Structures are given as C-alpha cells and as structure tokens.
Amino acid sequence: MSKMQELPAREELPEDLTWDLKSIYESDQSFEESFASFEENYQSLASYQGTLADGADQLLTALENILASSRHLGNLHLYAHLKNDQDTSNAKYQELYDRVRSLSSQFSVTISWFQPELLAIDEGKIQAYIQENSELELYRHYLERLMTKKEHTLRESEEELLAGASNLFSVPGQTFSVLNNADLKFPVIEDEEGQKVQLTHGNYSEFLESKNRRVRENAFKNYYSVYEGLQNTFATTLYGNVKVQNYRATVRNYSSARDAALSSNFIKEDVYDRLLEAVDNHLPSFHRYLKLRKKVLKLKDLHMYDMYTPLIKESSFEVTFEEAKEITLQALKPLGAEYQEILQKAFDERWIDVCENKGKRSGAYSSGNYDNNPYILLNWHDSLNNLYTLVHELGHSVHTYLTTKNQPYIYGDYPIFLAEIASTTNENLLTIYLLNQADTDTEKITILNQYLDGFKGTVFRQTQFAEFEHFMHDQAASGQPLISHFLNEHYYKLNKRYYGEDVVSDEEIALEWSRIPHFYYNYYVYQYATGFCASSALAEAILSDETGLDRYLSFLKAGQSDYPIEVMKEAGVDMRSSDYLNRAFEVFDRYLKQLEDLIQ
Ligand SMILES: [Zn+2]
C-alpha cells in the first residue's frame, strides 16, 4: 500500500482528472453575484404568508416562487459543498460553505409557515383550486402527498412546541457523535511490521482486513475494550434516541416509530417484515458462505475478526482509471444507447473528480441537483474495489441525470429508498460482465469474493441491524429500559443466530450495537438490503426479459412523480412481496456454488 506516500496538493492534479465546476458557476465571482441576489430576494417570500387560502392563483404564485428560490439555493449549495470537499483544508471554501449553510437555515425559517398553512386548508378546497387553475394540475401529486400528512399534523400551538423542542430531540445523536468521534481514545497496537500504531476508526477497518491474524485479533479486542468501558453511556444515548422516535410517533398518531419513519416514503411496514423473514429463511446460505471462508483461510475456528480479510490477495486484479472507464462502458452496454451516451458525457464533460489530494474529503459519492451535472467524488486506487465504486456512483449520477431531464423540478429528485437500487443494479451488471470475461480461476475467485462479500455486508449485515433496531424500539415502547446489559444479551443472541454455530461468537461482539452510527438514523439501514435485493432482480430482468430494459429506464426517469412502491412496480419489482428477495438469494446461492466449485 502506498498510503505513506505524500499526497499531491490540489493544484498539482492534472485538470482532466478533476471535476469541472465551471458549469455551475463560471468563477467564484459569479457565485458571489448569485449569492448576493439570493440574499436580497428570498425574504420577500414571507409576504405570501397568510395568502394560500385566498385562491388558486395565490397558491400557485406562492408555491412557484418558493420552488424557484429553493432551486437557486440548490445551485449555491452544490458549488460550495463540492469546492469545500475537494480540499477541506482550504479556508476560503470552508467559509463559502459555512455561509451557504447558514443561508439555507435562514431560508428554512423564512418559509417554515408554508407547509402548516397549506395543510390547514380543507382538501376539498385544494381540489377546487386545481379545477380552477389548470397550472396547478402539475402539482396534484405533490399536494396529494402532502395531504397524507394531515392526520399526523397537530394543532398550530402544539406544532410550535414540537418545533421548538427539535433541537433537544437531536441531543442523544449528537452526544453519541461527539463521544464516538472526539472523546474516544483507542489503545496503541502493533501493525504487521511490529510498529506501534494508535488505533482509530479509520485504521480499524484496515486492520480487520489484514492477512495477519494477530493484527486482526488485537485490533478487534482493543477496539471493543474501549466500548466496553463506556457501555452504560452508549446505552443511555441510544435509549434516549429510541425514546425520542417513540415519543414523536405517539404524539403524531402513528402506530409505531417504524410506521412513522417508513411513512415518510409511503412504505408499509410489511416491506420491512418481508425482508426480515426472507433473510431468516436464507441464513443457511450465509452459513455455507462462512464455512467456505473458514476453509479458504485454512482456519481451525472462524472468529468475528476473520470476516473482512480477503479470501485472496487483492493485487491479483489491478485496474487503472482509464481501463475502468472502458470496462464500465462495456459492462453497462445492456442498459442501452441512451445510457451509454450519458456515461460518455460523464467522462467527456468531467463530472468526476478522480484522484486523491491533500485535504480531499475521503470516500466516494455522487452529488448533483436539478440544474447541474451529477458530479462524482472518488479517491481512486487501481483496484477492483474502486472499479465497483465507480460503477456504483455512476449509477446514482445517471439516475439523477435521467430524473432531472424527464421530470419537472417539483418531482426532479428521488427518495433514498430508491437511490441504492440504481447504483447496485450497475454493480450486479458489472459482476455478470466480469465473470463472463474472466480467463483464469484466480480472476473468477476474486470477482465472486467481491460480490459475495458485498452481499454479506449489504443484505445480511444490514438486515441484522434492521432487526435489532426494530427490536429496540419495540422493547422500549412496551416499557423495557434499554440498559447495556439487556442490549448486550440480545445483540449477542441475534449475532449468534445470524452467523450460526460454526462461527466463534467472541464475547466482544455483544457490544457491537454501541458503535453503530446508523442506529441514530431512524430506520434507515433496511433500505440498503431491500435496494440491493431489488437490483439483483432488475439486473436479471434487463438481461433476459424483452421489456426489462424499458421498465428499468422508466424507473430511472420517474423521480418523485409517483409513490416509490408504485415506481418499482412499474419497473417490474413488487417490493411488498417476497419474490424479489427470493430471487436475490437465488443469485447469491448460484455465485456461492460457483465459488465452492472453483475452490474444490
Ligand atoms: Zn450509493
């Protein structure tokens, strides 16, 4: 690994490997002019307060002016956040980004009256407005969505009290974050070369991938020793967060915290239950995979710290960025000519910021908005993993591109529930392509390992979290205090059920609940698993079904124009049934069988 090498400064990067933000604003100067004009105008939106019930024209004018402002603000935000991320140590862009963020929160305050005022209007009256002014027809679905919130909206004075307390409600999550990111001090351990290294969140996952078992075990035990010492505090922050979600759900007339969280995407709770059932039914497949892992690693016992070390050396598959572009175009050919053209645009118009540089935000993401290119941030290394990341992020970017080009602004975005489907469909297509192309067994094993590990992390692991998340909310709602002893005992049991009898359940793993930031995201994690499973079914349909591609493209173009479950139904996946889940497990089983045969 070359991580010890000095990273280049931002200015030293070749321009063609950086993103072109000039298409948002030509220069910082034009950003400043746009910022100033926004600042000057947005406060006038307050003048529409109290006019929404005056008539169809008034409603339309207020709505369109608010949307225009939010669209303008979106451009300011995109430019500032990307400039900041390309070098987070750059003080000028830090300041720019801070200014946009504080402008955003002022903007939210300025228009905070809008939704409650609209919800207070009688539904019949809204229908009459749409009849009266045909330009409101465009907003019918938007207004219909909003109206479903009516029965969960309280009296104005009560809403004010809740809004005023929203800062307090975020305290458990903030406390967790500060404790976990700023205050925790991890012990010093020895790396592969026997050098003393301070354990951190960042290098913990690298150590778990180590080929050297002593290093993995030491990292694992030392990491958890810190959580063990603070387990009562972590239980208190987590319990606090669960209480907040349960309280909010109760006062807003939802049947549970899960009902409240899923309702924001118009998802019924059976979607969640089907996932837990299907994963439970397929745990034997997971156990088979773990058995194979134990065999390939030639271990007598498979421990929890043996889960991330690669089955074979990663260096057996190196891909440069130039090669990755070519492979991407080939692998995604089944998505048709229109999709190919957009990929080519992404490469030619410099949507992608490829290389690592000093101060650059770590990881990878896709970020765009209605009026601009959907940009991609990468920290490229020549590996199979990075090829998958590129294809994944391009899945998000093309989704954004097709949505914004085919929908009006009001529907020109898509919910998180659908987002991961577009990105992981590409990963599935890449896997199929690479397996077809692979000449050697080593290559095939590397690809299958990449896929199966991805499935394990996205479907089995995230569902385990989803199950525990729901368990905690349920228990707390029925009066069970979430003390650390209780959480440890149940997490340990759950972990044992997921990993099976063949894996040594190290006692430290009982504490895993204490370190997972996603438990503060309010029923977020299940969507990783449902998204990945839906994408397996879609990738198969694209390749084998005559109408598969057209239906898939209709999903990429739909945005918020319909409810997420309906959008997926159009695409050919009924997410309220177990069928799509079972199809995903069939793919997992098939690849697992291939890997087993290759290793024989
Ligand atoms: Zn993603």
Give a verbal description of the structure.
This protein has 600 residues and is mainly α. It has two domains: 12-169, Butyryl-CoA Dehydrogenase, subunit A, domain 3, CATH 1.20.140; 261-349 and 383-600, Oligoendopeptidase f, C-terminal domain (Neurolysin, domain 3), CATH 1.10.1370. Helix content is 63%, strand content 3%. It has 24 helices and seven strands. It has helices at residues 28-41, 56-86, 91-110, 114-119, 123-132, 140-147, 156-169, 171-183, 201-208, 213-229, 231-251, 257-263, 269-281, 283-296, 321-331, 336-348, 384-406, 416-437, 441-477, 484-499, 526-544, 548-558, 564-571, 579-599; strands spanning 188-190, 196-198, 302-303, 352-353, 365-367, 375-377, 503-504. It has a three-stranded mixed sheet with strand order 4-6-5, sandwiched between helices. Strands 1-2 form a two-stranded antiparallel sheet. Strands 3-7 form a two-stranded parallel ribbon. A hairpin with a 7-residue loop joins strand 5 (365-367) and strand 6 (375-377). It starts with 27 loop residues before the first helix and ends with a helix. The model has no long low-confidence stretch (mean pLDDT 94). One of its GO terms (molecular function) is metal ion binding. InterPro entries: OligopepF_N_dom, OligoPept_F_C, Pept_M3A_M3B, Pept_M3A_M3B_dom, Peptidase_M3B. Keywords: Hydrolase, Metal-binding, Metalloprotease, Protease, Zinc.
The outline comes out as: globular
Q: Mind telling me the CATH superfamily name of the largest domain?
A: Oligoendopeptidase f, C-terminal domain
Q: Supply the CATH architecture of the largest domain.
A: Orthogonal Bundle
Oligomer: single chain
* Order of adjacent strands in the largest pleated sheet: 4-6-5
Overall structural domain count: 2
Mean pLDDT: 94
What is the strand content? Answer: under 5%
- In which range does the helix fraction lie? 55-70%
The bound ligands are: zinc ion
Individual helix count: 24
Spatial extent as radius of gyration = 25 Å
The major sheet is characterized as: 3 strands, mixed
Protein name: Oligopeptidase F
Domain Peptidase M3A/M3B catalytic: 208-586
Cofactor: Zn(2+)
Function: Has oligopeptidase activity and degrades a variety of small bioactive peptides.
